[in-house]
Design goal:
The complex is a heterodimer of chains A (about 300) and B (about 375).
Chain A lengths: L23 H17 L6 H27 L9 H7 L1 H21 L3 H4 L6 H20 L1 H13 L3 H34 L5 H25 L16 H11 L8 H5 L3 H24 L4
Helix pairs in contact in A: 1-4, 1-6, 2-4, 2-7, 3-10, 4-6, 4-8, 4-9, 6-8, 7-8, 8-9, 8-10, 8-12, 10-12
Chain B lengths: L3 E10 L2 E11 L3 E5 L6 H9 L6 E6 L2 E2 L4 H7 E4 L11 H11 L4 H14 L15 H13 L5 E5 L7 H18 L2 E6 L2 H7 L2 E6 L2 E7 H6 L4 E6 L4 H9 L3 E5 L2 E5 L7 H7 L1 H7 L9 H27 L3 E7 L3 H13 L38
Parallel strand pairs in B: 3-8, 3-9, 6-7, 7-8
Antiparallel strand pairs in B: 1-2, 1-4, 4-5, 9-10, 11-13, 11-14, 12-13
Helix pairs in contact in B: 3-4, 3-5, 4-5
The chains are: A mainly alpha (about 300), B alpha/beta (about 375).
Chain lengths: ~300, ~375
């Protein structure tokens, strides 16, 4: 009786790779993809997903709630969640997201000495920096831009006449892209710059939150107590957490609350946009300098 | 054709001169880069990878100039760094696939290749676990997989068995041998473990204090050391050892036996006198004809071996100790390294400029083997 051979196991040993090879774009995409996964805790244990997904719920929750209410109640609910107002609501979520995502991207690579391996591949420091920045732009854009776009689409679809809504509010789409884009770039640059200063995630997160919140509190206290100080209107630029809000108010044509520091300081929107641009540029310069000094 | 070549490489970090005017040729095959901690091994590897720039000199790896084309070098080289360098919360399969993509492999091929290489280095189901839970040996395997996954032509391994248990060390050395045998990938293995070098390498580069002491085949390197004997004499105790040392020999107890060899006779005045044509003619009248330098070196070692045996015999006779064993021992890489290292560390003496080999021109103090290696040594070299 002959035995039937049902299978065989082969030890193929080491083999050379003779498949396709891609260039710089593949390497950049690999770092971007790994970075986005890292920020969102994907392909890692559940604990790493808690913070980013809680913040995403905080960012998208109001949008879906509003769209749901409009579906149930109809047009009568009006526009109580305007685009500028939405950005005001999620300002803290945006700051928290930036304060956790940036350090998550940069700090572990240095703390765990992963750069010793990354830089032994054909990856330059400029590639590494650009890929990390791209990853953070994608992730922060998920909070600063995507919910607004979802809200715009929701408003359009729940309007009695979608075409009319689009015609009447078409300008809002440009404003959403502009405001969301500027905030995405600003928070990404500042977050990565602060993260580049330390290997410890917690220190970077605390540093960014502390700087933004403390500067805003201190600037407000000095502004309203030192009323005789002639240059006190310039303190509004030191209130870092307030800068994005002032810029958004300008973009969407809303006014600062009466009696607030911004209202009394009297600067117009372009001044806040310039302040954001200066801070972004300084952050990128600091980041580039820190990355250029990294030793694998 | 050499796979890597460095000429006049120097590198200084602040007050520390890590490398000085180093000329190295890494031939095809497996080459061991041997030296104590702080000798400059890791600096040399980083210079060859183009990760740091030299103060002077130049290096060519796989035909690419490291200074002008470092990315081409890194695309063709796999590197296993010393120490921890792996993310703890990522699975081995994901990380190796990521490294494959950094080597230019498309994502699907990267995942397949990562899986295959993880299997080949002995990470089977473990490859789907987070690296943070891995033992040192498994982490070394992940590093090796990451270094191999993009199919490099040259592998640079920095202390690949450091911190591993004996079984893990054996497994890692087997892996290196397999990689060499099955893939034909050339390797430069930096280590302070001479046993590792003897096990897997066919050539060796010895560095100390930022200088190259010696480079060549393992056999050539081991053969440059003075010959010795494994001896069982009397009770082998301190008194016996002291008597042998007093007779001008170097002694190291190993188990029941004593490993005995002559002092650094090659550079001693007596040895030079003994090697003089007159002395050789007087002792070996049959060898008057001209000889090649290699034949002459063999003859000198043979002569020295006989002299060492004579001294041991004389000590045994003088003290009436029974000589139970007197077996020749082949010189080892360790002996060569310790001798060259001590010579390089010793202050320049009146013998500088003698007829010894380059980098090996100063007399060695007679001392028992296994004593503390002089300065620069840190943890020293061990087998």
């Amino acid at each position: 009786m002959t035995e039937m051979r049902v299978g065989a196991i082969y030890d193929r040993g080491y083999r050379h790779y003779d498949g396709p090879r891609e260039g710089r774009s593949r390497r950049m995409r690999a770092i971007v993809t790994a970075g986005v996964r890292r920020c969102l805790g994907l392909k890692r244990n559940w604990k790493t997903k808690v913070v980013p997904f809680a913040l995403l719920v905080g960012a998208f929750g109001p949008v879906f709630a509003f769209i749901g209410i409009r579906l149930l109640v109809g047009e009568s609910v009006g526009q109580f969640l305007g685009y500028g107002r939405y950005l005001g609501i999620v300002a803290l979520v945006l700051l928290l997201f930036a304060a956790t995502a940036g350090p998550e991207l940069l700090c572990p690579d240095r703390r765990q000495h992963v750069l010793a391996l990354v830089f032994t591949r054909p990856v330059t420091r400029a590639d590494y920096l650009a890929a990390k920045l791209a990853a953070l732009l994608l992730v922060i854009g998920l909070v600063a831009l995507v919910p607004l776009l979802v809200l715009f689409v929701g408003n359009t679809l729940t309007a009695p006449r979608a075409a009319t809504y689009l015609r009447e509010h078409g300008g809002d789409l440009g404003r959403i892209l502009f405001a969301g884009g500027v905030l995405t770039v600003f928070y990404s640059a500042v977050s990565l710059a602060v993260a580049s200063l330390t290997e410890r995630r917690s220190l970077a997160t605390a540093g960014l939150l502390g700087t933004f919140l403390a500067s805003t509190v201190v600037a407000n206290i000095i502004f309203f107590t030192a009323t005789s100080f002639s240059g006190r209107r310039w303190l509004t630029f030191l209130a870092l957490q307030g800068l994005p809000g002032r810029f958004v108010e300008w973009v969407f044509g809303t006014a600062a609350p009466p009696g607030s520091m911004a209202a009394e300081a009297g600067f117009t929107g372009p001044a806040y946009l310039a302040a954001l641009a200066v801070l972004t540029t300084l952050s990128l310069a600091l980041l580039a300098w820190r990355i250029s000094r990294l030793q694998p | 054709m050499p796979v890597a070549q460095a000429q006049g490489l120097s590198k200084r970090f602040g007050a520390v001169q890590a490398l000085r005017d180093v000329d190295v040729v890494v031939e095809q095959g497996c080459t061991g880069l041997v030296g104590s901690n702080g000798a400059g091994k890791s600096t040399l590897i980083k210079l060859l990878l183009g990760l740091i720039a030299p103060d002077s000199g130049q290096a060519v790896v796989l035909g690419h100039d490291v200074a002008t084309d470092p990315l081409a070098v890194r695309a063709s080289v796999g590197y296993v760094p010393e120490g921890p360098c792996l993310p703890g919360d990522v699975t081995a399969a994901d990380f190796v696939a990521f490294m494959a993509q950094l080597g230019g492999l498309p994502s699907r091929q990267a995942r397949e290749r990562a899986s295959e290489i993880c299997y080949q280095v002995g990470l089977e189901e473990e490859r789907y676990r987070a690296i943070g839970g891995f033992s040192t040996g498994m982490q070394q395997r992940v590093k090796l997989a990451a270094a191999l996954v993009h199919d490099p032509r040259l592998l640079l391994l920095d202390e690949p068995t450091d911190g591993m248990d004996p079984q893990g060390r054996e497994d890692m050395l087997d892996l290196i041998l397999r990689v060499r045998a099955e893939l034909g990938v050339d390797a430069l293995v930096s280590t302070h473990l001479l046993g590792d070098v003897e096990r897997v390498c066919d050539r060796v580069v010895m560095v100390h204090g930022g200088r190259v002491l010696l480079q060549g085949s393992i056999a050539e390197a081991a053969g440059t050391s003075s010959p010795g004997y494994s001896v069982q004499l009397g009770d082998g105790g301190r008194e016996v050892q002291a008597a042998l040392v007093a007779a001008g020999l170097e002694v190291r107890p190993v188990g029941d036996a004593l490993h005995v060899r002559g002092p650094d006779r090659a550079r001693s005045p007596e040895a030079r006198e003994a090697r003089s044509p007159e002395a050789r003619e007087a002792r070996l009248p049959e060898t008057r004809e001209a000889r090649s330098p290699e034949a002459e070196a063999r003859e000198v070692r043979s002569l020295e071996a006989r002299e060492v045996a004579d001294v041991i015999r004389d000590v045994a006779v003088d003290h009436a100790w029974p000589l139970r064993r007197l077996a020749p021992r082949a010189p080892s890489l360790e002996e060569t390294f310790l001798r060259l290292q001590a010579a390089a560390s010793a202050p320049a003496g009146p013998e500088a400029g003698s007829d010894g080999p380059p980098g090996d021109r100063r007399p060695l103090p007679v001392r028992p083997w296994g004593t503390e290696v002089p300065e620069h040594s840190g943890r020293g070299v061990r087998r």
